[in-house]
Structures
1.
Amino acid sequence: MASSLSSELRVRGYAVVSSGSEDYSFDFIAAKRDEIVAIKLVERFDSKVRRAAEDLKRLGKSLDLAPLLVCHEGAVEDSLSTYRGIPSLSYETMRRLIKGEEVPFIYFSRGGIYVKIRGDVVKVKRREMGMSLGELAYSLGVTRRMAYEYEMGRADATLEVASRLVKMFGDEVVEKLSFKSIHEYFSSRQAPEETPSDRVRDPLLKRFLEVLDELGYTRYLLERAPFQIAAGKHDEQRKLLIRKAEKGSGVEDKVTVDVARVCRSQAILVTEGEVRVEGKHVIKMPGRALEGAELRELVLEALSTCALS
């Protein structure tokens, strides 16, 4: 399934990077312009998926991308659900999305089934018809305050209310599923707790987390990824991957660099050798930089030397 989806994404103009291992929390990352999505394909939601879910969520928050679980069995067609806070789609719905077919943004929540409404379109249509906000509320069977919340984009509609809106104004008032709209939906949800530095056993990774804290980055230690740390400072549009490289880890090193490239971020590879810059997306630094303030200076150098694309 993964190879089929990645091929379809490439045909549609996406740059695709495979993680290289089914054990990781994502199978591949796809990017095109401002759309970036990390995708994990699963047969069904089980304990194995639970272990990877938190890492996928951390990846989404730190790199400011859309994490997405694509489920082959048990997922509802033509709608979005969430699993442990991660957006999920059925395999066939995902294929429709890639092909550019219009799928309404319908999602399942604890409170029921909801439809994402394009509030700005509702407002324009209402005014074109000469309706007051109160008249709209009456027609929808909701309070004036709720009608106002719809127009401001701060509330989503139940299926019943959405159906009434479509009958009144047409289906353009309903948001369509896309990687961008899924990303916005995920971004609005609560972020997972950051990894406390004092719980990290590896002294080098611990120091990296402390430095990133000092620099104001949102950062996470990852357990199921080719790189150990993902961090972001979204107000400055800066993202960073850190990998503690080992002998014979060339594949993981390459994946880390490729992910940095498609995510428009930087990668730091910690090696046994001397510091040398490789392109604008990666800098290599020796493990001895752990001593003193040198690590902080090298992190700052990486962020300034490896320019964003």
2.
Amino acid sequence: MKVGAMLNMVELETFAAVVEHRSFTQAAVALNISSAAATRRVKRLEQSIGALLLVREPAVMPTKAGEEVFRHFMTVRLQEDDLLRRVTPGRASTTALALAVNADSVATWFEPVTRELAQHHVALEIVVDDQDHTLEALARGDVKGFLSTQPEPVVDRFVAEAVGQMRYQCVATPGFAREHFAGGLTLPGVLEATAILFDRKDTLHDVFFGLHFGVTVGRYPRHYFPSPAALLNAILDDLGYGLVPAMQAEPLIRGGRLVALAPGHDLMIDLYWHHWAQEPEPLATISALVMAAARRSLVQPVPGGERAS
């Protein structure tokens, strides 16, 4: 790329559309141009920069250089939106943003964040997926923030900040507990009773059993309900027992609908908010809102190894 050369915004917008849609054809439809025109624009951008930005096979994906260019374009677009809102206060346009948040957080403490974000003219997309897929989205720039159990930054130019611990309790209905765990949560009981898991990627029970019994428990009966509400309802319907966020479990325990199978042995899961190290608005405000809400709702470590909620 020549020194001082300016990137063509039309070509950048076309390139970004291809990345977002993962298809030249779909990007062309979104931009109301032909696929050939979209291809030409991306090729001209690659020639201007002097680097390959996209790989076409087996699927359309940005290269490392393409990821950098896409993040640049998204930053510019966010800055322009923020500038227009500041210089024209009556402007009512919104900024579309995607954040990756685990399902249990969405079901418990994250909802107030969405209400606050609506006041900042944000059209929010919550992505709930496995970590590997989300990392790809982070690398491309599709997702602007990511709640994870990973304590270290997983994408260049991102930082990871601890926001607290999600506390899980192993629970069942009183009737299920009497039938399967009359003597408490035991290894024979676990090997016989059915556990309720979120999906096949859910490792919470494996971690909990390892900590509770000191051994790996690989083969135990299980049902899968890929929704926090459906998982909790399955437990309440006596289909099995399971690990539930304490924010959901405790009111039901107080009401007598659930019992804790391992009192005093809750599972603590550390959570970290991953975000751009240098955030334009409104991303900086969004990250601040997310982290503040998490720290109000999640368990916070205190000096001496104790935990305060």
